Amino acid sequence: MKIKYALLIAVLFICGCSSMAKLVVGKRGLEIPQIVAHLEPSFKDNDINISGKIIIQNPTESALYMDRISLEIRDEKKDILAKDILDWEKPSVTSGAELEAPVAIKLGLSALKNKSIDVWIRTGFTYKKFNLHIPIESRVAVLHLEALKETITRPLNINIFTKLRSAISGDSSVDFVLGITNPLSIDLSLEDVEIRILTVDGKEVAKSTLPATFFKGSQVNQVNGSIKIGNIWGKLIRGESSRGKPLKFQLTGRLVMPGTDIFMPFSIASVVEISFSFF
């Protein structure tokens, strides 16, 4: 059988990006397989989990023996964030078939400082029919991280419960319970929290801050506290507040992803009220 040699450079692509594999095969060209990456980033256990698979498709008339895959994740500065050695499901792929290599690699949350990250591989294959080995090194994926960042900045379920503890003579205080449902599988830090007690006409009665608090991922987390407001009766009388008007509890802060500059600001200003009467 007369064999016709042709040189076909495979296009390696994902997420709309492509690059050409640079292969040196001497004076003769051989048809080489196409390598495709299907990868997806997600949050898991306070890490970014890159999962999916790399597929090699063999369009040649020869069976191919595969080398292991060296995989690297590089940031926008081309620095290596993570690397791993992958194995094909089988050591060879027959003519007209395809072969997969599963990918499961973890990155630190600091990788979110990049808008995108690149996935590079080094591997090689041997043509059984010609006893010829060809190495390959190329970028197979560009993973954009903006969509992953947006999951952090979406509104979370935040509830606050308050109770006024007052006395006709002596200091008063407001007890509160802040509940945040964190649907993400990563921890968040509650920072820069300020609490203000206001009258209905906006006059400040008391103000306090809270220390940074970690909220566990995939859990309903709570913060309990109390803020002293002094002699509330005298303050309201001097403020000419009338019977039945409430105090307002205002809480502001931000939820931060540790190790990154990503945060979600929030404010509960006028929804929660503490009602009481003089009589």
Note down, in words, how this protein is organized.
The protein is mainly β and 279 residues long. It has 2 domains: 11-150, Immunoglobulin-like, CATH 2.60.40; 154-274, Immunoglobulins (Immunoglobulin-like), CATH 2.60.40.10. Helix content is 5%, strand content 56%. The chain is built from 2 helices and 20 strands. Strands 5, 6, 7, 8, 10 and 11 form a 6-stranded antiparallel β-sheet that branches. Strands 14, 15, 16, 18, 19 and 20 form a 6-stranded antiparallel β-sheet that branches. Strands 3-4-9 form a 3-stranded antiparallel β-sheet, with no helix packed on it. The longest helix is centred in the middle third of the chain and has 8 residues, at 146-153. The chain is rod-shaped. The model is unreliable at 1-29 (pLDDT under 50).
Write the layout of secondary structure elements.
Elements: E1 11-14, E2 17-20, E3 34-44, E4 47-57, E5 64-66, E6 69-74, E7 80-86, E8 92-93, E9 98-107, E10 116-127, E11 132-144, H1 146-153, E12 157-165, E13 172-182, E14 188-199, E15 204-210, E16 213-215, E17 219-230, H2 232-238, E18 247-256, E19 263-268, E20 273-274
Antiparallel strand pairs: 1-2, 3-4, 4-9, 5-8, 5-10, 6-7, 6-10, 10-11, 12-13, 13-17, 14-15, 14-16, 14-18, 18-19, 18-20
SSE pattern: EEEEEEEEEEEHEEEEEEHEEE
Kindly, what is the distance between the CA atoms of the first and last residues, rounded to a whole number of angstroms? Answer: 106 Å
* CATH C-level category of the largest domain: Mainly Beta
Query: What is the second-level CATH architecture of the largest domain?
Result: Sandwich
| Average pLDDT figure | 77
Sketch the major β-sheet.
6 strands, antiparallel
